[in-house]
Each structure stands twice: as structure tokens, then as C-alpha cells.
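testing teh design pipeline on a random one, pls ignore if ur not involved
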């Protein structure tokens, strides 16, 4: 099961010391690639009701980001190793 994406929601914004507006993100889960296709694991403590949204809007946006801890090449090598049952070094 390879991790494909991190799932995150925007929880606010701030201004950095250079005056640039930046977003605050909270990681709420992951998308994994399994034997029968991709699936989502959500953090049990995540409550969509706590995510800020526009007045009168009933939906929130959950964004998908490629994992920063592994490069795409490392992920592909991991997937190939799982398919062939050979260790990756």
C-alpha cells in the first residue's frame, strides 16, 4: 500500500515577516494505493465542522498534496518492490 497523497484542509492564513500572505494547513489523512485501487484514511479526530468556510456554504475543500518525505522516484521504487516482493535498498 503506497502513500499517494497527504490530505489537508486550510485552517486560516497569516502574514510572514516579508509581508507575504501564507496559508495554514492541517493534515487530516492520506490517500493510499491498495490492491483494489486508491482509498482514503482520515484522522479519527478530524471534524469537518471545525474547518472555516464562507458564510452560507455547506462544503469544505480537502486538498491533496504529494508527500514531501518521499520523492516520486522513491514511491515508484517502493511500488515496484511490492509487486516483485524484492527489498529496496
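output:
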Amino acid at each position: 500500500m503506497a502513500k499517494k497523497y497527504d490530505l489537508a484542509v486550510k485552517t486560516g492564513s497569516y502574514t510572514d515577516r516579508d509581508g507575504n500572505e501564507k496559508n495554514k494547513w492541517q493534515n487530516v489523512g492520506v490517500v493510499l494505493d491498495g490492491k483494489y485501487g486508491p482509498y482514503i484514511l482520515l484522522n479519527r479526530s478530524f471534524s469537518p465542522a471545525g474547518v472555516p468556510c464562507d458564510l452560507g456554504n455547506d462544503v469544505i475543500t480537502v486538498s491533496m498534496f504529494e508527500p514531501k518525505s518521499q520523492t516520486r522516484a522513491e514511491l515508484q521504487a517502493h511500488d515496484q518492490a511490492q509487486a516483485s516482493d524484492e527489498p529496496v535498498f
